[in-house]
Write a structure and sequence with these properties.
Helix 2 packs antiparallel against helix 3. The protein is α+β, with helices and mostly antiparallel strands. The chain contains three helices and seven strands; from the N terminus they run αββαβββββα. The chain has helices at 2-19, 57-74, 163-173; strands spanning 34-41, 44-50, 79-92, 96-111, 116-131, 138-150, 160-162.
Amino acid sequence: MMVTRIVLLAALLTLGACASTPKYVAADSAEDYGHYSRQIAENRYRVNFNGERRANLQDTRDYALLRAAELTLAEGYDWFQIIDRESSTTETREPRATFGYQRAYYTEQNCGLLSCTRTTRPASYTHMGFDSYAHRPATAHRHSLEIVMGHGEVPEDGNYYDARSVVKAVYRTM
């Protein structure tokens, strides 16, 4: 009984941790979900955002744009131009673990020559399984931007963005 409670508690805590993970975070590495950037030249950066499994492609694009705007403001610039952009989607099938507990009653009937006796006893069943071929594929999106930052008024020809406006707009939709 105690083992069953521990298993159920562990499963609930795991589900709660997954549900409460924020979508827009800094990545620990280039493979981890979240945003990361790399300086290419004095005012040129490559900004990447790896979405976690719940993030759709549009959220991933928005978060990459938000990170580009935040980085532009942090570096002391006013606007940025997108020189190159790239999106990719990968699907993987991840293993799935299952846990179960069932309480039932087992009835046994023994019949002799003259009568039958019926005995009912409680029974508990637990099962743990591991399915290496999960039914739903995990989809992850990645969006990458190469940007050049600038000062002053935003030029009107090209893919230029005012950094402050982008930050306000994306935070409004989060």
